[in-house]
Amino acid sequence: MMNKRPVINNVVNEKMTEMEIFQNKTLRPVIKMQHDLLISAFKNYLQKRKVVFLELTDQKKKSKIANIFKTDNNYKNINLGFIIGHFSEDEFNFYTKNSSEINRRILQIISQRVKDSLLEMA
User: SS3 letters for 74-99?
Assistant: First the structure.
């Protein structure tokens, strides 16, 4: 599974913390690999909840996305599953020791990707 991950070059240096290295060597490539699924899942979320997203201003779109990622625990957990399911056993062991911080980072990166992708489409 790891051989399907995109390689993101020049993202790790010796001054980084272990958490930053994990974010750049594991989280970012997995999230990038899952990009299309993450965007489809968000569009499906909007459709199921009958959110008229395209008619919102860009600022309201950003606010709506941020609010969903802040308040909808079920949706957040689905997104976390999309990413955590691609961890190796070693990565998962690191994750279990740092799950709160890693979850925060995963959701922050995904939220930003969704904002960037959906604002480009409008």
Answer: HHHHHHHHHHHCCCCHHHHHHHHHCH
